[in-house]
């Protein structure tokens, strides 16, 4: 069994043990909420699907897809890539788009700022990772398409290569949500 498989099995065992552990600890008088009482079971069934669309799962999905796209587009041997004019055109377009978004965000009445007018907690900061990931994926897909790589294979290569990444992220997210519920 590889290290990644061991970590995945550990998270699955922890996810199975946490509800029982919460019940035992609350029965012993430790100040924590039980997942197996009425309120806990309602919470569990209402929020069990939240771990499927958590930020950690989205990050795992984005990273595995990006890793596959980078490998399949053959972008990594940068010493060869940096000499090609297509690379500079894509990089210039990417830089101009990002600069325009940041300039739009810094105007005083921008909808990309938070309610208080700052960058902290703003939609721009919340969506920055996805925006960066999306533009990088488009860049890699365009670059790979110019090299005649099929784009569906590019998108799914990382997920096929790392099949435990998403279930592991779901298990970790479930454990984290259970721990957050247990500890008042």
Element layout with pairings:
Elements: H1 3-27, H2 38-47, H3 55-72, H4 78-81, H5 85-106, H6 123-146, H7 151-161, H8 165-182
Describe the structure.
By secondary structure, the protein is mainly alpha-helical. The protein folds into two domains: 85 residues, no CATH class; 75 residues, no CATH class. Helix content is 72%, strand content 0%. The protein is built from eight helices and no strands. It is flat and about 70 Å long.
- Overall mean pLDDT stands at 80
Structural class: mainly alpha
Our estimate of the beta-strand percent is under 5%
What is the assembly state of the chains in this entry? Answer: single chain
Helix content: over 70%
Distance between the termini: 37 Å
Strands, count = 0
Query: Which regions have little confidence, pLDDT < 50, spanning 5+ residues?
Result: none
Q: What best-fitting shape do the alpha-carbon axes yield?
A: flat
Give the total of domains.
Answer: 2
Order of SSEs: HHHHHHHH
What is the helix tally?
8
Largest beta-sheet details: none
Gyration radius over CA: 22 Å
Characteristic terms for this protein:
8 helices, mainly alpha, 184 residues, 2 domains
Short description:
By secondary structure, the chain is mostly helical.
């Amino acid at each position: 069994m590889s290290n990644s498989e061991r970590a995945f099995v550990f998270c699955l065992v922890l996810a199975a043990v946490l509800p029982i552990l919460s019940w035992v600890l609350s029965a012993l008088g430790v100040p924590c909420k039980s997942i197996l009482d009425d309120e806990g079971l309602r919470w569990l069934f209402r929020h069990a699907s939240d771990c499927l669309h958590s930020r950690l799962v989205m990050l795992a999905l984005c990273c595995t897809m990006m890793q596959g796209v980078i490998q399949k587009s053959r972008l990594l041997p940068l010493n060869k890539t940096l000499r090609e004019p297509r690379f500079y055109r894509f990089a210039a377009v990417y830089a101009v788009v990002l600069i325009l978004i940041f300039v739009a965000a810094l105007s005083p009445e921008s909808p990309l700022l938070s309610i208080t007018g700052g960058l902290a907690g703003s939609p721009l900061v919340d969506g920055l990772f996805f925006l960066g990931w999306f533009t990088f994926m488009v860049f890699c897909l365009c670059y790979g398409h110019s090299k005649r790589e099929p784009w569906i294979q590019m998108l799914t290569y990382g997920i096929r290569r790392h099949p435990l990444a998403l279930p592991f992220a779901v298990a970790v997210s479930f454990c984290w949500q259970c721990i957050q519920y247990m500890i008042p």
